[in-house]
UniProtKB/TrEMBL annotation:
Region annotation (Disordered) ranges: 105-143
Occurrences of domain Terminase small subunit actinomycetes phage-type (ranges): 11-104
Organism, as annotated: Kocuria oceani
Domain of life assignment: Bacteria
Listed InterPro entries: Terminase_6
Protein's name according to its UniProt entry: Terminase small subunit actinomycetes phage-type domain-containing protein
Amino acid sequence: MIEQEKTLTEAVEEALAGMDWLKPADDAMVQLVRKYAAVLDDSSAPGTDPAVAVKALYLAPHMTRALEQLGGTPTARGEFREAEKAERAAAPVEDTLARLSARARGIAGSQGAVEEEDGEEREPVAAVAAGPGRPGRARRRTR
């Protein structure tokens, strides 16, 4: 659960403590993230000049990118990509069979052009006629 009363610096320290994959080579980036958090915290202190506070907010995307490079965001850890991948992989065979079945029904039930997935209309294979004066040579009509 996310606590509301934490400072950004405290939240960053907790996040960094949970990143057991960090190495000494990451120390400069870790220090940069800490500095960004401290500046952002200071800019939101009571009595801070509003212009200074607004300027400090420009650091937020830089801090986010630094955290991302350290693996400190859900996107960087692949959590969202993994969820999307799991959804797509749930029923690929069934989806493909349903698409092929619908396409086959469209071909078998029509004598005219069939609309493909790309929006193009093409004549079904059975309806493709040989070119004029060229028996046995099929042609495919596309737009």
